[in-house]
Amino acid sequence: MSNAHLFQELFDYNQHANEQFIKILTGLETPPEKAIGFMDHIFNAHQIWLNRVQVGGATFGVWQSHDPNSWNSLNEQLHQRTRTYLEVDPASRTLDSTIAYQNSKGQSFSNSLQDIYFHVINHSTHHRSQIALILRQHKIIPPASDYIFYKR
What we know:
single chain, Four Helix Bundle (Hemerythrin (Met), subunit A), two-stranded antiparallel sheet, 2 strands
């Protein structure tokens, strides 16, 4: 399996795991506010990183709020944009390509495309685990979102 294919698989998993949490959170009469904030942040960060890699498009604020009714659409848009970038003309860039960017504080950095993709996946997983903990604290069973459950 190529690294590009591995990232396609991981982003497919990421979309699926997000869908599971969206379903739980939007199905609650009063979802925990902190959980909503983390779900928004997952989408915001994914979009911010895509704009750093692809250059262009409006950028969300790091902690910008979204209508939870828009989450499914937002999740799908981010997934499709990521998949398209992974699939279109991979010869023009490799996962080892260096991406120069500025963080939200204006500091300049550069990382490989592979490191950025791994970060987006890991970042999303990290915040979904925070949402799972918040749900448990509110006596709500979170979805089983481990990668192995997705692959089964």
